[in-house]
């Protein structure tokens, strides 16, 4: 018995390996616990596989496919373990304009782009372990100003990987070499590498340059893509990376919110000068950077949801697999989307996003004198 054909139209992009497993299981009328028992693995290991939260290893996958009664001639979509990256996956990795790599489920490097190789050459060779470097190498303690937080998060990643595949020799070796105190910090409260910023020591002092973003490729759940998105940190004693330079504020009719921002008291369109939006009747004044930042963040939160980001990531894989070119990688997280908004999007593209989504922005002065904003969205 084969799963239902993938949906057509706008939802066709949502089909993935974990959804195929769920479809087979539903057709067999089995619970996750029943599949796990038949496959001889824990229910947690199976649910991690079905939800793309962990890879249980090829042997466990084969047992799951047997438990789901999937005929041998219908397993081609599950034949990915141990295979090289596809041309599309490699193209996507090497087109990213920031440090990025692909690791297997034990965090050993499969491939990396030149930006990662330049930043961390000791972890760039295939078979090197980013997890081992962070947790066990003395150099990591010197390079990372927030090593304790990073180590706790990567220890949690090790615990999760061991939960998914407790028989993996590389993971067992890492666990055996891990100090007991560090292993005890490995818990959900310690966070995960995903979303964590790494604070690097420089001659001028520590500053954040990387935020880690983890993604499971939709086409195969056995590796992880690890992106290190450049971040900025405003500190008096901290040098600001070149990427942090902001675009100059627009003025007049070119302002991002011209014709959209209105006074909440009299409903007049706010006028603009070099750095402010202001009511013609002087009801309210607000800094241009502040108001535009608020609207940008609200827009990004509304547009770049977890589901839309997942679909964008899969669309990117499909485009590259078909030989297409992508000059600007799609965002992989809301923070990444905001970074692209601040540093990469031309003003005319920002304006197009706003005019397409925002009906009006009302600015009102509160009793404490601070301006508040209310955004009305287009349907």
Automatic annotation (TrEMBL):
Start and end of every HTH cro/C1-type domain?
Answer: 21-75
Name recorded for this polypeptide: Helix-turn-helix domain-containing protein
Source organism (scientific name):
Streptomyces halobius
